[in-house]
Amino acid sequence: MHQTITSLLIIDPQYDFYDVPLHEQLTLGNQPTAIPPSLPVPHSWEDAQRLATFIDNKQKSINNIVVTLDSHHKYDIAHAVYWQNKHGQHPAPFTLISHQDIVDGLWLPTNLELLDHVLEYTQSLEKTGKYSLLIWPTHCVIDSVGHTIVAPIQTAINAWEKQTALLHHTISKGENPHTEHYGGCEAEYPLRDDIKTQFDPQLTALVVQSDRIFISGQALSHCVASTVEQMVDKLPLADIKKITLLIDTTSSVAGFEQQAQAFVEKMMALGVNIANTTDIMPS
């Protein structure tokens, strides 16, 4: 008899994206000082609690847990230090940098040898209709506290590993400082000289090998949307129908709620299931 394979994909469940209450921050790593998240998504701490409860409740029936980790350097194309204006000042967080801004010399790469790259990069983003480059607060820097998985989700994963004698698997994305990497399958602008920015079939293979796959994480408007879109783009309808987005465990970056809503509607039309954790029958 065929054993039903259930997988869980958690996208970027890292401290820098969670609106961690102050009392929780104070206990982080036994350090007495608060460690504020750099890019907190509103309502994400409640999302983390709900996902942890879901993992605990479904513990015996989850066969795979895969976690993507947003993994950056301080020097990154979407961080301020990569750019400067003619006065040598770096852009403020949430500054948009268009192809035309670079042509006009409003913003230039700090390393001018990268001028041709950033011109091609921004032109490609705008041509494909993705967006203008947005400068984010410096976040998910490798080896920082903000890069680590939030405690409620990590605790639930640890308990699942102990119960099932299985290990969760992590996929890191974003290490190359010269391209953005929202989705877990490939960078926004894959680079010819870096295979880690090119399409990685691990997540589509996970869907194909599973009978059902639940998806959660942060943020719905960006990395969750991008990852799911990249997966769906490569999958036939029969596999798309295996995907369930746990909508009560993911939230949008403030100001990007409409973008997230459009993504959810598009995915529903393509056959992705949208459900609350409370809608899923307990094992």
Automatic annotation (TrEMBL):
<comment type="similarity">
    <text>Belongs to the isochorismatase family.</text>
</comment>
<keyword id="KW-0378">Hydrolase</keyword>
<dbReference type="InterPro" id="IPR036380">
    <property type="entry name" value="Isochorismatase-like_sf"/>
</dbReference>
<dbReference type="InterPro" id="IPR052347">
    <property type="entry name" value="Isochorismatase_Nicotinamidase"/>
</dbReference>
<protein>
    <recommendedName>
        <fullName>Nicotinamidase/pyrazinamidase</fullName>
    </recommendedName>
</protein>
